[in-house]
Design brief:
Elements: E1 2-7, E2 10-12, E3 18-26, E4 36-42, E5 49-54, E6 60-62, E7 70-75, E8 80-85, E9 94-102, E10 105-108, E11 112-116
Parallel strand pairs: 2-11
Antiparallel strand pairs: 1-3, 3-8, 4-5, 4-9, 5-6, 7-8, 9-10, 9-11
């Protein structure tokens, strides 16, 4: 069992930066670093899409639309995953969700709103 709480969303101007955090509470016997951690986003009227993922081995992958601008990282000592978002664009506006996966289990946070607007 994993509980995820996102934070760090807000309103930012185009070209600005935000860092999202997702703090995980894992059940006794589970190890945060064994999970694949991901960030997804869902814009109004659109399907939820994968933004970035980091595996237990540290391998990362990104959506083409955010490559070179976003960076996913983890702090295993704090059971936290981050998403550093730079050079934000209006099209990055969405609710961002944290996900923890350890097959077949799949856990989601409640989401945090990111709005990019002048």
């Amino acid at each position: 069992q994993v509980q995820l709480v996102e934070s760090g969303g807000g309103l930012v101007q185009p070209g600005g930066s935000l860092r999202l955090s997702c703090a995980a509470t894992v059940a006794s016997g589970s190890i945060f670093s064994s999970y694949t951690m991901s960030w997804y986003r869902q814009a109004p009227g659109k399907q939820r899409e994968l933004v970035a993922r980091i595996t237990w081995g540290g391998r990362t992958n990104y959506a083409d639309s955010v490559k070179g601008r976003f960076t996913i990282s983890t702090d295993n000592a704090k059971n936290t995953v981050y998403l550093q978002m730079n050079s934000l664009k209006p099209e990055d506006t969405a609710v961002y969700y944290c996900n923890a996966g350890f097959y077949p289990a799949d856990y989601w946070g409640q989401g945090t709103q990111v709005t990019v607007s002048s």
